[in-house]
Design goal:
By secondary structure, this protein is an alpha/beta fold. The protein is built from 15 helices and 11 strands.
């Protein structure tokens, strides 16, 4: 055995304790470290011939790379839609690596059974029925891709062809209709061979909305003359967290033939709160559902789930035919349900967080984040140099400069806020106007954090160079 590896084996408890102590130091310092690191990273070093062992590697990382890592796990990182990692989910993530389970199949371990239990908890959390079967994937992009892959197979079933056997060319023209699709949907259509051009954008409701106009969707489906289609509905758009009327969209299936996929990447968590659960009414009527867990469930990257009513079609798409893997019968192994064979036990961090805090604990995170988003929105609405681009509907504040919100000025504001180390927000363009998004989804964020974010934005929006 290599001497460094042999020494590490002998000192394993000590080394794990050192890594634990370093992690505690870093996590405990989140409030004081810069939220974003915008400087130039070190140039790559050559691969060492002789290793330094774990202790030496940790020292090298702490000196060279750790100072440049962002505070994205902390309370004032409001870019994209990014959660943190609850204490319980962090513990679960560490144990995931420690156990290093092979969860491609159920043989030889309880790990797959734990994943099924976790999926059952999540299905209940989001108000889905038992006919929805799920699997863990890496993120919302893969979740949407899996859901649309099953939809693609359904289109083949409706047209009397097998996409699995004959390829996507056997389908002929494909129509995917949506009002405000996330960019991951068009990426998925490209990956699946359906093509970005298969997406048909349906007009949204008037009055500063991103929700699809159901009457216009009805007309668009009617124009297909009975040809089966796919409808991608939104439960929480990224700019303004608008929700399609899922029940009304689903009701269109009484007259039209389409697969209903719902992108509920973070908006699905509205189901946890009685005040907001009506926004996702009808989610259980979807044929496939995407939910991202490293957003509002606050588990470490990477973790998401996908659910579908047609697991038989899912197996048809993702079945891995090999003598040593067996045939998927009854309750198929997870390797027959997603693109991955090799996969880590992503369910364990989610299981820990759900077991530790339950429905009520995660409901509190959702409701606190919404209250904080409203707090920031109210302060921005009163600030002379800023204005809201849309109402604060849930947990995202979409805003811009009050005067001359050009792309250069808005991006300069985002850069200045990030360079301050106080907060991080991401640029967007909404209804033709350049703006910024502050997305609240971290379990740590408080009123004091929100006020620090506002102070940083207000201070820098007044800078002459903008």
């Amino acid at each position: 055995m290599d001497p460094a590896l042999s020494d590490d084996l002998d000192r394993l408890p000590e080394l794990l304790q050192a890594a634990r102590d370093f992690a505690v130091q870093e996590v405990s310092g989140l409030d004081n470290r810069p939220v974003a690191r915008l400087g130039k990273a070190p140039a790559p070093d050559p691969l060492p011939d002789g290793g330094a062992g774990t202790e030496g590697a940790l020292a090298r990382f702490a000196d060279r790379w750790a100072p440049g890592f962002s505070g994205s796990a902390g309370p004032r990182y409001l870019g994209f839609v990014t959660g943190g990692a609850t204490p319980a989910s962090l513990a679960g993530d560490w144990l995931t690596s420690a156990y290093d389970q092979n969860v491609s199949g159920a043989a030889g371990s309880f790990a797959s059974a734990l994943e099924h239990e976790t999926l059952g908890w999540l299905r209940e959390l989001f108000g889905l029925g038992e006919e929805h079967h799920g699997a863990f994937v890496s993120g919302a992009t893969v979740s949407n891709t899996v859901g649309l892959a099953v939809a693609r197979e359904w289109l083949g079933e409706r047209r009397g062809v097998s996409v699995t056997d004959d390829g996507v060319g056997a389908l002929g023209p494909v129509d995917v209709l949506s009002g405000s699709p996330h960019s991951s949907v068009t990426k998925a259509l490209s990956v699946l061979g359906l093509g970005r051009g298969s997406l048909r954008r349906v007009p949204v409701l008037p009055g500063n909305r991103e929700a699809v106009d159901v009457e216009r969707l009805d007309a668009a489906l009617d124009a297909l003359d009975g040809r089966p289609a796919v409808v991608v509905a939104n439960a929480g758009t990224v700019n303004t967290v608008d929700f399609d009327d899922l029940r009304a969209v689903a009701a269109l299936r009484e007259r039209h033939d389409f697969w209903l996929h719902v992108d509920a990447a973070f908006g699905g968590f509205a189901a946890l709160s009685p005040e907001f659960s009506s926004l996702v009414a009808g989610l259980d009527e979807a044929d496939s559902v995407c939910v991202d867990l490293h957003k509002w469930l606050n588990v470490p990257y990477d973790a998401a789930v996908q659910f579908t009513r047609r697991r038989d079609l899912q197996v048809r798409v993702f079945h891995n035919a090999s003598p040593y893997l067996g045939l998927p019968g009854g309750d198929p192994d997870f390797l027959h349900l997603t693109p991955e064979n090799s996969r880590r036990l992503r369910a364990l961090p989610a299981w820990f967080s759900l077991a530790a805090y339950g429905r009520e604990g995660h409901r509190e995170i959702v409701e606190r984040n919404v209250a904080l988003a409203r707090r920031l929105g109210e302060r921005i609405a009163r600030a002379p140099g800023l204005r809201l681009l849309a109402p604060v509907r849930l947990n995202v504040v979409c805003f811009t400069l009050a005067d001359d919100p050009t792309e250069r000025r808005v991006h300069s504001l985002a850069d200045a806020v990030g360079a301050s180390g106080e907060a991080f927000v991401t640029p967007t363009c909404y209804d033709g106007t350049h703006g910024l998004r502050a997305a609240f989804s971290n379990w740590r964020t408080s009123e004091a954090d929100t006020d620090r974010v506002f102070a940083a934005v207000e201070r820098h929006c007044a800078e002459p160079r903008l």
